[in-house]
Amino acid sequence: MNLITEKSNIKSIGIDRKTISDILQIMNDEDKLVAYAVEKELPNIEKAVKEIIKSFKKGGRLIYIGAGTSGRLGILDASECPPTFSTDHDQVIGIIAGGLEAMTVAIEGAEDDVEAGKDDLQNIDLTEKDVVVGLTANGNTPYVLGALEYANSIGTTTVGVTCNEDSKITKVANIAITPVVGPEVIAGSTRLKAGTAQKMVLNMLSTASMIGLGKVYNNLMVDVNPTNSKLIDRATRIIMEATRVERKEAERYLELSKNKPKVAIVMIKKDCSYEEAVQLLEEHGGYVYKVLE
């Protein structure tokens, strides 16, 4: 198959004889193409986000599955959701071919195992309420294809993220997201532009979905989980910005709200108790702006 991600990039021919300055300029020029490639896929990303929000609202999960760099990026995005949005640890899940050891060590042959993709989804009790996002730069990774084929067989919504338009995953996934970034500076090294494109898409999938669940107020991270001093300070500043109270007052309400900035904001703005704020948020689907309207 003629995969653009495997082709030689004419712009980087002879890069081994370039100065460091020239090497960096070539890489930077190529990286500039990534955002435009992702932009072309916004309609498909929107379709995926709508499915993810629907899934979350009926108790489903977002599951990323991939191999190598793609798998690592999925786990990275999943791992950032609990501290950023206070999601349950099993609401957004990252799975990588070869298991967690593959995060730091290449597990040879793991990505070629079709049955392993299916097995890994069965091991987390995949249901039709979930959404599975298959991540594969070249679009033909057997492990990922096996996973999506199994997900399709039980009625789960499937999304494929790849940097090749005519790859196998575009035929398997219900929704295909294909930012075509062109050949890599080092031919076939898809941890470069293809990896960057996949990271940008994942940022959009998770962030836009969380906004759609009411986990952001204005542009503030109001569902942050303040589990360390940095995040406690961030939560305090979020309350201050949203309500215009002084730091000491914000710190007091953060404590009264049991470390839930969203609840603290409603308590201050509506001049109500913790219990009343929680109830108001439940009644309005978790959206702060709807409570305050």
Which helices and strands occur, and which strands form pairs?
Layout: H1 20-39, H2 42-57, E1 62-66, H3 68-85, E2 92-96, H4 114-123, E3 131-135, H5 142-153, E4 157-161, H6 169-172, E5 175-177, H7 193-212, H8 229-243, H9 247-256, H10 261-270, H11 274-283, H12 288-292
Parallel strand pairs: 1-2, 1-3, 3-4, 4-5
Helix pairs in contact: 1-7, 2-7, 3-7, 4-5, 8-9, 8-10, 9-10, 10-11
What does this entry look like structurally?
This protein has 2 domains: 207 residues, Rossmann fold, CATH 3.40.50; 64 residues, Helicase, Ruva Protein, domain 3. A 5-stranded parallel β-sheet has the order 2-1-3-4-5, sandwiched between helices. Helix 8 packs parallel to helix 10. The radius of gyration is 21 Å and the shape is globular. The model has no long low-confidence stretch (mean pLDDT 96). It has 293 residues and is of the alpha/beta class. It has 12 helices and 5 strands. It starts with 19 loop residues before the first helix and ends with a helix.
